[in-house]
Structure formats: structure tokens, C-alpha cells
Amino acid sequence: MSAIAFALDTPTAAPASDTGWQRICPLDEIWPDTGVCALIKGRQIAVFRLASGELYAIDNHDPHSGANVLSRGIVGDLAGEPVVASPIYKHHYQLRSGACLEDADTRLRTYPVEMREGAVWLQG
Q1: What average pLDDT does the segment 87-102 reach?
Q2: Do 122 and 38 touch, CB atoms closer than 8 A?
Q3: Whole-prediction pTM
Q4: Which of 30, 84, 89, 103 lies 20 to 30 Å (CA to CA) from residue 78?
């Protein structure tokens, strides 16, 4: 399965109380234990849906390879911590914190993400 990219450089209509939140896609367009890439204000963000229903969002840019590929990584669990393994050098990034397990000095930016009325929303 290939990743789906959603371009969101133009803000979508959202309630005034949700300033900064953007609708990404319907939840059912992200298969469990996979990711998609969303483009928000010129920044690629990898959005993941776990089989448990949890949603996570981190930078899509893999700093070790220099490629924007993390949304295509393998989603898994290491010692109870949800992670994604980069498809290039296989570094593992914690989905909750963005920390790289193989390189303590590397941490990706994380983003608030939630499901509302059947759709995935991200604060970018």
C-alpha cells in the first residue's frame, strides 16, 4: 500500500475555538497501523493510525537519510512504546515523543492530532 498525501496549504474552515487545527482526511482513509503524509504550510507531517485507534503525528523528514519518508515506515511496538521504523536506515522513532531510539540526540517534532466526527484533524 502506498502512502496518501494531502496538501493543506490553504486553511480549511474550522470553528473559531479550533484556531490552528486543520482537517486532514476521513479516518477510514488511513488503514490501521499505517501512516499518511499531510502537507501543512509547506511542512510534511506523517500522521499514523494504530490498530488501537490511537493517532500520532510527527515530522515526515528522516534526519538520518535526509528523505521525507517516515509516513511510509513500519509501525510497531518496542517495549510497549509505539514507534515507526524509517524505511531507509531503520531508525526507530517514538510516536509519542519523536525521540530516536538509536540516536539520543535526535528528536522529531510531534503534533497534536485527534479524530472528530469521523475525520482526522491536526494542529500544525
Answers
A1: 97
A2: yes
A3: 0.85
A4: 30
